[in-house]
C-alpha cells in the first residue's frame, strides 16, 4: 500500500494554483475540468511521479454543519486554532523561510525548534496554515 494522492482543502482553486506553483514551486500534474471545479493536482518538481497534492475545493455541499459545507468548517477550525493542515518537508527551513518571505509569503512567525527538527508555519492564502519542517537529529 502507498499514498498516491493526498489533498489540501482550498477556498479558491485559481488562487491555490498560483500560490502552490508560483510561490511554493510545485508543478501541475493534472488540471482537468470536474463539474464546477477542476481535478487539480501538483507535485514536487524533484519527484513529478511521486505523491500528488489535490487542491480540493472546500465548498462541497454534500455534508453540512449548521448550513455550511463541513469541509469549510473543518478548514476554518484548524486555521483559527493555529494548526497546520499539513506539513511539507524541506532540507533547510531557514533558507526556505527567507526565500518565501522574499516572495511575499506570510508566516505565523520565524522558524522554531520543535521535537525532531525545525518548523515554520505559513499561510497559503487559501484558508490553510501549512507547516514547513526540517528534520534534524534522530527524527
Brief overview:
This is Catechol 2,3-dioxygenase-like lactoylglutathione lyase family enzyme. The protein is built from three helices and ten strands.
- Structural class by sheet pairing and helices: alpha+beta
Q: Work out the helix count.
A: 3
Spatial arrangement of strands, main beta sheet: 1-4-3-2
CATH superfamily: 2,3-Dihydroxybiphenyl 1,2-Dioxygenase, domain 1
**Percent of residues in beta strands?**
35-45%
In the CATH hierarchy, the architecture is Roll
Q: Which radius of gyration do the C-alpha atoms yield?
A: 15 Å
Number of strands: 10
Distance between the termini: 23 Å
Average pLDDT, rounded to a whole number, is: 95
Task: Characterise this structure.
Residues 2-135 form the VOC domain. It holds the Pfam family Glyoxalase. InterPro entries: Glyas_Bleomycin-R_OHBP_Dase (IPR029068), Glyas_Fos-R_dOase_dom (IPR004360), VOC_core (IPR037523). The protein has 139 residues and is α+β, with helices and mostly antiparallel strands. It has one domain: 2,3-Dihydroxybiphenyl 1,2-Dioxygenase, domain 1 (Roll), CATH 3.10.180. The chain has helices at residues 13-23, 70-81, 93-102; strands at 5-10, 27-34, 37-43, 52-57, 64-65, 68-69, 86-89, 112-114, 117-123, 129-135. The strands form three sheets. The protein has a four-stranded mixed beta sheet with strand order 1-4-3-2. A hairpin with a 2-residue loop joins strand 2 and strand 3. The model has no long low-confidence stretch (mean pLDDT 95).
